[in-house]
Each structure stands twice: as C-alpha cells, then as structure tokens.
Design brief:
alpha/beta; Metallo-beta-lactamase, Chain A; Rossmann fold; 2 domains; 18 strands; binds zinc ion
Length: 367
C-alpha cells in the first residue's frame, strides 16, 4: 500500500486525500516548515506544527486557514492516522508520520541532527517506509561540529572588528539567521539585521523563541551584519564599509561553491543533515524501504541498494531550488495571500469524530 505517492503537486496521500508540502495550491496541505519551497500560497487548509503558524502567516498572509497540531499528538484523517514530530531544521519544522492498517510511513521534510537553540531537536521515528530528504546526500558533505564552526565565525568577527572592518554574514532569512543570532557572542557589539530577517525574527518571537535585541541604527564600520545575499551592494550596507563577506551554508563545504558565490570565505553550517547523519537517521528509523527526495537522490539510492536496503527515488513537482533562490523568494515575495480562500473540510475533521478521543495517546511504535 502506498501511503504517499509523488505527484506533480508534491507528495500526496490517497487514503487521507491531502498533500505534504505541495508545490501548487491544493485543498488540504500539511506543511513541514515555512521555507518558500515547502509552503505555497493558495491552499484551502494548512496543517502544521503550532510554532510554525506565525511563520506561515508571516510568509503566506494573515488570512490563511491554518491549524496547528501539537507535536506527538495523533489524529485520524479519513483512513490514515497522522502525527507530527520535530525535524530540527528550523522553527516549527516537522516530520510527518502516517499509519494505516499497521503500516507506518514517515516523510522527514528538511531536517538536521545538529543542535539549534531556536528549534526542537530532531526526533527519530521508527517506520516501515522512510521518505528522507537528501539535499546533501553525498559522502563529501560532512559538517564540522557546530560549536567549532561558530568559534571560527567569532574569531573572524573579532579580527575584523579590531581592524575596523565590518563582518557581513550572508544567510537565509528564515532559520540560519535566527540560529546565528541566538548563538553569536554579545560582546562584539549589537548585531544588525536586514529587514527580511527582522520580519522573520518577529515571527520567531511571536512563537515564543527568545532572540537577542538587534541594532536599529544603520550599520557602521566594525559592525556585525546578518543579511540576505541580495542586499550586498545596496545603500544600507554601504554604511558598513569597509567590510568582509562570508556565506554561512552547507554549500560552503566545497571550494567550487565558494567561488561561485564570489567570496573566498564561507562557514560550513547547515540546517540539513550531512552524509553521516543521513545514514544514521536511515539506520535508526528501522525502515525496510527508503525513498530519497531532493538533491542527490540517485546517488543515495545507488548507495543504499549496494548496502542491501530497498531504496527508490521520489520525484515530485516541487522545484529544486538553490538556497540563494529560496532566500530570494522568502525575502522579496511577501505579499499577503488572499484572505477569501474557499472553504474546505479541515484536515482530520471530515470524519471519525470518535477518534478524537484518541488524540495524544498514540506514540510512534516500534516496528
Ligand atoms: Zn527548508
């Protein structure tokens, strides 16, 4: 039985009649997190983790019909029981667990295993079938310890500040910016953030995440600035000159990518799993079958098959966006969604009202 099938509009659950992270508007969508390539405008109903809702509304508009389902609580949607589990990717990121007639599937969404002070840590969920993201699914992608890379960033900031040079950290506006803001040492002066990041910060605070206060005056020489890459060259950043720039991304693991970005410096900090964490996650899931989504799907499938694991590629209509492109969409595509979306049955309210009594009792089971 296929609990999830890839379609032009993204992953679809035929039994429950809903999509996960659809790439186009659908009647009912479970959204694993608020990044632009996972949360699209125009869906009838959205279901997400409660702490994802402020981010969804920030990105898609206050008028969306969005409902939160507590982590670990389960609900029946037609013939399938669903629950949401932390993915550790960004605030409000989830894995979706589906159970039907004793078979358990998990779709991971984007996830990481490194610590992040701004979101819940990834939680392994046993399953029969695991659909995992493979954005960095090559053995060359091995992340340094997050603390070590943070110390490199701090040393760079400190050196720059002593020379009167500003440090421009080029980051995604949702996730990486807040993770860094919560992690950087406060003794090197206030941190300036681009407007696109400030807007996301407000949504994080609304969701209950404490973030340090950021500077409100324009940056000047010796400042630390968190900014989206598209702002480099703007007048706002001209005031920070002289400055050095550095990308903070998993893509910085390869020299070629650093050169493509036009900066010799990059810090390797990702909100996705690296190769060892990907393999560990697959092992811990106990899955009999593994589907690879996004990025290096063919390479991961080939490797798993060589190891004797049944594996397959999952191709959906979701665009494969470069992170810089994703960030552009997040930063500059902020027009609110239409507030008069058509009414659709809720995810999980259409039937099986009696099952509501079970909510919260279902925990992931060993398989
Ligand atoms: Zn993401």
């Amino acid at each position: 039985m296929n609990l999830l099938v890839p379609t032009e509009r993204g992953l679809y659950c035929p039994v429950g009649d809903f999509h996960i992270d659809p790439s186009r508007a659908v009647p009912r969508a479970i959204v694993t997190h608020a990044h632009a390539d996972h949360a699209v405008k125009g869906c009838g109903k959205y279901l997400a983790a409660p702490d994802c809702l402020p981010l969804l509304r920030h990105r898609l508009g206050r008028g969306i019909e969005a409902e939160g389902l507590e982590y670990g609580r389960s609900r029946r949607v037609r013939g399938v029981r669903i629950s949401l589990h932390p993915a550790g990717h960004v605030l409000g990121s989830i894995q979706v667990r589906l159970e039907c007639r004793g078979e358990v599937w998990v779709a991971t969404g984007d996830y990481k295993r490194q610590p992040d002070p701004t979101c819940r840590p990834f939680e392994p969920v046993p399953c029969h079938v695991l659909l995992t993201e493979t954005t960095f699914g090559l053995p060359i992608y091995v992340w340094p310890e997050a603390d070590e890379e943070l110390q490199r960033i701090e040393s760079w900031r400190r050196r720059n500040r002593e020379r009167g040079v500003s440090s421009l950290l080029l980051v995604y506006s949702l996730g990486k910016a807040q993770r860094l803001l919560a992690s950087l040492a406060p003794d090197l002066g206030p941190i300036h953030v681009h407007d696109a990041i400030a807007g996301v910060n407000a949504a994080y605070r609304e969701a209950g995440i404490e973030l340090p206060t950021t500077a409100i005056d324009p940056p000047s020489a010796g400042s630390t600035v968190l900014t989206v890459p598209q702002a480099v060259g703007t007048r706002w950043l001209a005031a920070a000159a002289p400055y050095e720039t550095a990308y903070v991304s998993g893509w910085m693991r390869t020299r070629r990518r650093r050169q493509q970005r036009g900066t010799g410096r990059g810090f390797v900090m990702s909100d996705h799993v690296d190769w060892p964490a990907l393999m560990r996650t697959i092992r811990e899931s106990g899955a009999e079958r593994v589907g690879a989504m996004h990025g290096s799907t063919a390479e991961v499938v080939r490797f798993l098959r060589e190891q004797g694991t049944e594996a397959f590629e999952v191709r959906t209509g979701r665009p494969q966006l470069d992170p810089a492109t994703i960030d552009r969409a997040e930063s500059f595509d902020e027009s609110p969604a239409s507030s008069n979306a058509p009414a659709h049955p809720s995810l999980g309210e259409a039937d099986d009202a009696a099952d509501d009594a079970d909510d919260g009792d279902d925990r992931p089971e060993g398989v």
